[in-house]
Amino acid sequence: IDFEATWCGPCHTMDQWIWTDSEVAAALTADFIGVKIDADLEKALIKRFAITGYPTMVILDATGKEVRRVAEYQGSLAMLAFLGG
Predict the structure, then answer these.
(1) SS3 label, residue 40
(2) How far apart are CA 54 and CA 31, in angstroms?
(3) Which of 3, 18, 45, 70 is the most buried (most CB within 10 A)?
(4) Burial of 40 from C-beta contacts in 10 A (0-12 / 13-18 / 19+)
(5) Tell me, what DSSP letter sits at residue 20?
(6) What is the DSSP pairing of strand 36-38 with strand 2-4?
(7) What is the pLDDT of residue 34?
């Protein structure tokens, strides 16, 4: 889950450069179902996942249990490491 906000500069940068990076996109689509959550529209989910900054990425297992979390801008290599666990 990519928790982002329309007013978040680093979120826009990740959309433009990181999520479109071919290696990151391949890793994401190979093993995950990616979901973007707009913090301004989904306040209940922001509260449920205790999101305190943007962007925040959360990986859940098949049961919905949180497995990993990272906050703030992540470059391509950092995102690949995060996705690879």
Answers:
(1) coil
(2) 23
(3) 3
(4) exposed
(5) T
(6) parallel
(7) 94
Residue 16, φ and ψ in degrees, nearest 5: -75, -40
Mean pLDDT of 38-45: 97
Question: Residues for the chain: how many in total?
Answer: 85
Q: Phi and psi for 19 in degrees, rounded to 5?
A: -65, -20
Residue 85 has pLDDT above 80, yes or no: no
Q: Encoding tokens for residue 70?
A: 């990272």
> How many C-beta atoms surround the C-beta of residue 25 within 10 A?
13
> Which one, of 44, 46, 43, lies nearest residue 1 by Cα?
46
Nearest to 78 by CA among 21, 16, 8: 21
Amino acid identity for residue 23 in this structure: E
The 10s digit of each residue's pLDDT in 54-73 is 999 999 999 999 999 999 99
Contact yes or no for 9/73 (Cβ under 8 A): no
